[in-house]
Specification:
Layout: H1 3-25, E1 28-34, H2 41-60, E2 69-75, H3 80-92, E3 98-100, H4 105-117, E4 122-124, E5 139-141, H5 146-159, E6 164-170, H6 173-185, E7 192-199, H7 207-214, E8 221-225, H8 230-240, E9 247-249, H9 256-262, E10 270-273, H10 289-303, H11 309-328, H12 333-341, E11 346-347, E12 352-353, E13 369-374, E14 377-380
Parallel strand pairs: 1-2, 1-3, 3-4, 4-5, 6-7, 6-8, 8-9
Antiparallel strand pairs: 10-13, 11-12, 13-14
Helix pairs in contact: 2-11, 3-4, 5-6, 8-9, 11-12
Amino acid sequence: MTRRSVMRALCAATLVAMVSGVHAQEPIRIGSVLSLTGPAAFLGDPELKTLQLYVEQINAGGGVLGRKLTLFHYDDGSDAAKANTFAKRLVEQDKVDFVVGGTTTGSTMAMVRVLEGAEIPFVSMAGGVAIIEPVRKWVFKTPHTDRMAAEKVFEDMRKRGVTKVGLLSETSGFGQSGRKEAQTVAAQYGITLVADETYAPKDTDMTAQLTKLRSAAGVQAIFVFGLGQGPAIVTRNVQQLGIKLPLYHAHGVASDEFIRLAGAAAEGVRLPAAALIVAKQLPANDPQKPVVMAYDKAYRDRYKEDVSTFGGHAYDALMLLADAIRRAGGTDRAKVRTALESTRNYMGTAGLVNFSATDHMGLDLSAFRMVEIRNGDWVLLN
């Protein structure tokens, strides 16, 4: 072999090594569309803060498989049409590898078709059961479903002898999916929905609907299915009208911001929620306690504010995705999707997750905790 040939071979080898090194250092591009403004803002705000916090932590620890994460995020203003537009931008302009987000059910469903078409693994942080039923190949979700919320609430009502309920639901995607699920499962728990009213996400007074619910024959409790600011308005209206019926909400209000917005009217409200908001009240031997306590500390230390279950959903989404990338050995989308679907025994802030080909949420009803607001704070119910 001539000296010139040797030099050429060495140069070629060096070039390959350089290209391989550059490729190995390319960031993993994570996209997110969240509701940072509008009615669902107090859900989206802790979600973004959580993603930013843990992307920084992961990168400080060397990234995933030695590659840093880059987060691309947009605010859909709680508008599903904007979520669809931003999903297209993530795919076409930002060239993201994966997507986490979709604060609301409506925004998530508006993104699904875009991301499925691009065959990008998508982990949603919204509650509607329609996101994962029927199972969509590329779509997963971290929070409990609206059906589970209805079941958990009706289970608690049955224990307390409540059989006749007035239902008040929001006309958002989450609210209407919840309304449908509540109607579907009520009879299984011996519950009759004696009244059924709705309100729009931007409504500022629901006294007319509540007056109808109060006058319904035999009504023993009120169940509200909504998220964001609307349920807080409903709760204040209940107090203003002097309604003394037990008031239940779905998990779309599991945040200290709800208590702040509803004020003293929130006293006695019951709802199903993730363990995160009652982390310190969990028994010492609860296997979820170390996870939720660690998240609680990290978030409070960074932002000097209370945690919410919505931030926890973002934590779970990012960590599930990072784990799948590691197990897939890279960012090949099909391999990561398969790795996600094979996730077993992941303990997150929402509960124990076991994905499968027929279940892209992976939680059972035991992942929900019933809580009540007392003296302006959350109390875990037995």
